[in-house]
Amino acid sequence: MSAPSPEPGAPRAGGARDVVVALTKAGRTKIRYPAELVRDDSVRITVRAPWAAPGVRDFGFVRFEPGDVLTEHYWRDRWFAVKEVRGGDGGLKGWYCDITRPAVLADGVLEVEDLDLDLWVSADGSSVLRLDEDEFEASGLAGRDPAAAGAAASALDELERLARTEGLAGLLS
Predict the structure, then answer these.
(1) Which residues, in sequence order, are bridge partners of residue 22?
(2) Is the pTM of this model over 0.90?
(3) Out of 68, 90, 110, 129, which could bridge 51 as a Cys pair, Cβ 3.0 to 4.6 Å?
């Protein structure tokens, strides 16, 4: 039996802090999960957490499963999040990138709004897949908030360009 987690934002043994990642989509909470705050330099927030959903999720190009660990990078000034996905054996599976509004960290809760668009980059960089463009269109964001829709589309293009040229490692260092 594991010990209960400290309150969000409370220091852990060794000085690390726990936060709660709260991912919303279309005004609803999609998922909330505890994560270890690894870094916060006032622009980028990095957390680490085990795969939070129950069971295995097979996307065809990658499987998320119990034992996987995600190191998640969020920005206060960018419209995306980049999640490094490692298997239970520590091997890199790749990067799952969510297009989001800029993240907000307050009172131990990291608030992130998912805008439907995603990008997958395999560990060796040979596969770069744009995902969920149909969901983005169907969301109606372009009609409700054209500026946000434009920022989201630009963020996806920027991430894809980086993935296909320099790779994502430089963005995360």
Answers:
(1) 32, 111
(2) no
(3) 68
Task: State the sign of the Cα–Cα–Cα–Cα dihedral 59, 164, 80, 18.
Answer: positive
Q: Provide the mean pLDDT of the chain.
A: 90
106 strand-pairing partners: 109
Q: Which long-range contacts (CB under 8 A, 24 or more apart) does 101-106 make?
A: 101/148, 102/75, 102/76, 102/77, 102/78, 103/45, 103/74, 103/75, 103/76, 104/76, 105/19, 105/40, 105/45, 105/76
- pLDDT confidence of 16, banded at 50, 70, 90? low
In three-state secondary structure terms, 18 is: strand
Helix (H) / strand (E) element for 114: namely: strand 109-122
The DSSP code for 154 is: H
Cα angle 116, 127, 76 (rounded to 5 degrees) comes to 40
pLDDT in tens, 109-143: 999 999 999 999 999 999 999 999 999 999 999 99
| Predicted confidence (pLDDT) at residue 9 exceeds the cutoff of 60 | no
